[in-house]
Write a structure and sequence with these properties.
By secondary structure, the protein is α/β, with parallel strands linked by helices. It contains eight helices and 13 strands. It is globular and about 45 Å long.
Length: 271
């Protein structure tokens, strides 16, 4: 059995299928870990989402910020802005409600003890151990999988609070957890999240560092797989795999084998 992590697809269905062909992926024996952002920006969000759903237990995908945005839009939040955009065909589909229901039940974080690997879409707060990160993710997952998710969706958007505290409660607490796991890139020395910079880390303003460079991060000792940051490029280290290589920007879609011998497989998404 092979276990492959694949970066953000964002509706790029054709490169995704070509990558699976190159991997010789077999649903009966192999497994996929997808870093989220299955939809939006690319040309075939509907086809992508239907296909990933059809893979059943052979695929694990975490929620990305674009996935959560689609869930919100499908429930009438900001829908008018998306009627003619990349989500339009998905929003008009007969099975849109079914796809939303399936998607909102995906996790925000996934951990494998056998691989000692944790997957999130964007990042982990340095004050969180792996155990606490999974517990924080579970708080949001419980809301998204319940009838209360409709009340939470309008509160999803916003950059505050920017600093973690165990005393946070209610929607502020849930929003911070979502932002950390699905939007974070840069933090300051006190662990405050900063959303002003989306490019390569070297261009950020003074005092900001990538979330994974925090020297005292409590999650260390576990391999972390993430996407979200296409400007970062591919990172494959012993304890860190950054795998959004910008397929939707005509660069590459990347798979990294997580078990046995490490292997990097890419598909050119240009043209």
């Amino acid at each position: 059995m092979a276990v492959y992590a694949i970066g953000d697809i964002q509706g790029c269905y054709d490169p995704f299928r070509r990558l699976l062909d190159k991997l010789r992926f077999e649903t009966e024996k192999d497994r996929l870990w997808l870093t989220g952002d299955l939809v939006n920006r690319g040309p075939k969000s509907l086809k992508t989402l239907r296909f990933v759903q059809s893979l059943g237990d052979s695929v694990i995908t975490v929620l990305g910020n674009h996935d959560l945005h689609f869930i919100a839009v499908a429930n009438g939040i900001g829908r008018s802005r998306e009627q003619n955009g990349p989500l339009a065909k998905l929003l008009r589909a007969d099975d849109c409600d079914e796809l939303v229901d399936w998607l909102r039940r995906r996790p925000l974080a996934h951990f494998s003890p056998d691989l000692n690997a944790l997957m999130v879409h964007a990042g982990l707060h340095p004050r969180w151990t792996v155990k606490k990160a999974l517990a924080r993710a579970a708080e949001v997952e419980a809301v998204l999988r319940s009838d209360a998710y409709l009340n939470f969706l309008p509160k999803l958007y916003g950059n505050s609070p920017s600093r973690w505290s165990g005393k946070l409660t209610g929607n502020k607490r849930l929003r911070f957890i979502v932002n950390c796991l699905t939007r974070m890139r840069m933090i300051d020395e006190d662990g405050r999240m900063d959303y002003s910079h989306k490019g390569p880390p070297g261009g950020a303003k003074k005092g900001l560092i990538p979330w994974f460079e925090a020297s005292d991060a409590r999650w260390r000792g576990t391999r972390v797989i993430f996407g979200h940051w296409s400007a970062l490029g591919l990172i494959v280290k012993r304890d860190l795999i950054g795998i959004d290589t910008g397929c939707v920007w005509d660069r590459e879609l990347t798979a990294v084998r997580l078990n046995d011998n490490p292997e990097i497989v890419q598909i050119d998404c240009g043209g």
